[in-house]
Amino acid sequence: MPELPETETIARDLHALVRGAVVRGVAVPRPDVLREVTADGLAQTLTGLAIGRVWRRAKLVVLALDAPQAPPGAVAPWQLVVQPRFTGGLLVQDGPVPEGELRYVAVTLQLTDGRALHYRDVRRLGTVALMAPARFAAYSGALGPEPLDPAMDTTAFSGCVRGSRRAIKVVLMDQRRLAGVGNIYANEALWHAGIDPSREAEGLTLAECDALREALQRVLGASVAARGTSFRDYRDARGQRGGYVDALAAYGRGGLPCRRCAHPLASTHALDGRATVFCPACQR
To answer: CA 72, CA 19: separation in Å to the nearest integer?
Structure first.
């Protein structure tokens, strides 16, 4: 957490809220989250630059920064790449915030319009990296394709997942094969497709691959529409919780009746060290 729907929500919010804003200064109270740049280097590089496009790649939130007078469509010289991991998040502060909201701030971009963009992280397992275009292209190129890309048809999806003897759930979460899918949505997609999470990926039929692709895209799209899933830490760029939790059919429901066949859902950590919830009666 956050996974694709959560980071997509954050990126869309930030694009609407801070696009065009100019960085007045940078504060780094917890520099251990930084990668590929020092606190002084981050401040020296970003001060005076404007935030352009904000978008998502895999589970990353990417902010392009360029000179305020840069022509439209120009390649930004810097990408600020935020990987929130388990407890990280980005928050736009445009006035007073509730007590405790800023307690875990690790990096702050102070904007010339008086607002601030904070990266906060309770456990500081996430990272903030500064990358030039070539470096970001190499970094992004090591990741798999996007599951919501229009080009992700049955053939492309089958090529991503069926070339492995590992469990299909593990393959779905492998960012080198498919970008952006984590534990929550791997559980959900497999339940909706009726596929046992422990099955070898290479053993899936083309029809099963198609069912899984459709289920994954449908679940991810629905969660994006609901602004993600919040259990404990995830908040959007306005500090609000995501609303998809009530629609979850598998994740977090171990021991409860399956919503398809009423058999109790099983929960185990044996597969990949993460919570795997599935129906032993109707997931084959």
So the answer is: 13
Residues 177 and 273 in one domain: yes
Answer with the one of 101, 118, 141 that is the final residue of a domain: 141
Domain count, the chain: 2
pLDDT per residue as tens digits for the range 204-254: 999 999 999 999 999 999 999 999 987 666 777 777 788 899 999 999 999
Asked about 200 being catalytic, the answer comes back as: no
184 and 77 inside one domain: no
Kindly state the helix (H) or strand (E) to which residue 224 belongs, with its residue range.
helix 206-225
Q: Are residues 166 and 128 in the same domain?
A: no
Known catalytic residue: 2? yes
Residue in the structure block whose two tokens are 């990280």: 88
Cα angle 57, 160, 133 (rounded to 5 degrees) comes to 30
Would you say residue 234 lies in a domain? yes
Residue 171's domain comprises: 154-278
Q: Has 169 been annotated as catalytic?
A: no
Measured distance CA(276)–CA(268) in Å, rounded? 5
What's the CA gap between 173 and 143, in Å, rounded?
12
Instruction: Tell me which of 56, 57, 59, 169 is the catalytic residue.
Output: 59
Rounded CA separation 227/218 (Å): 14
55, HSE (Cβ side, Cα atoms, 13 Å): 7
**pTM here?**
0.93
Last residue of a domain, one of 141, 167, 185: 141
CB 145 within 8 A of CB 172: no
Domain containing residue 130: CATH number: 3.20.190.10
Among this protein's residues, is 29 annotated catalytic?
no
Residue-wise pLDDT for 107-131, tens only, equals 999 999 999 999 999 999 999 999 9
Query: Has residue 284 been placed in a domain?
Result: no
